[in-house]
Amino acid sequence: MLVLITYDVSLNDAGGAKRLRKVAKVCTNFGQRVQNSVFECMVNTTQLTEIKHQLEDIINKTSDNIRIYRLGENYSGKIEQLGKSSSYDPSDTIII
Asked: What is the pLDDT along the chain (96 residues), one digit of tens a residue?
């Protein structure tokens, strides 16, 4: 399934920058960055559960926010892009 993960990590405290880097790293391990704090991830249910657990262990639950949108398997008609386009196709093979 395709999920969209967005995050807003507060930089107003001493650990904010470190948490921001850790959140981005977790998201990078499972998907592709499409905007500064937005990732598209092709995952199964087990992987989604793992992402959520990892992110919950990192964030400050009183100042940070993560939103996960499940677009499912039939996502192609649900995504519309305006402006600069990228060649990223979430169903394609990603070589790291």
From this structure: 999 999 999 999 999 999 999 999 999 999 999 999 999 999 999 999 999 999 999 999 999 999 999 987 777 777 777 787 665 555 666 555
12, two tokens: 């107003």
38 contact partners, CB below 8 Å, separation of at least 6: 4, 5, 6
Strand partners, 25: none
Tell me the residue type at 2. Answer: L
Rg (CA), the chain: 14
pTM here is 0.81
Rounded Cα distance, 66 and 26, in Å: 12
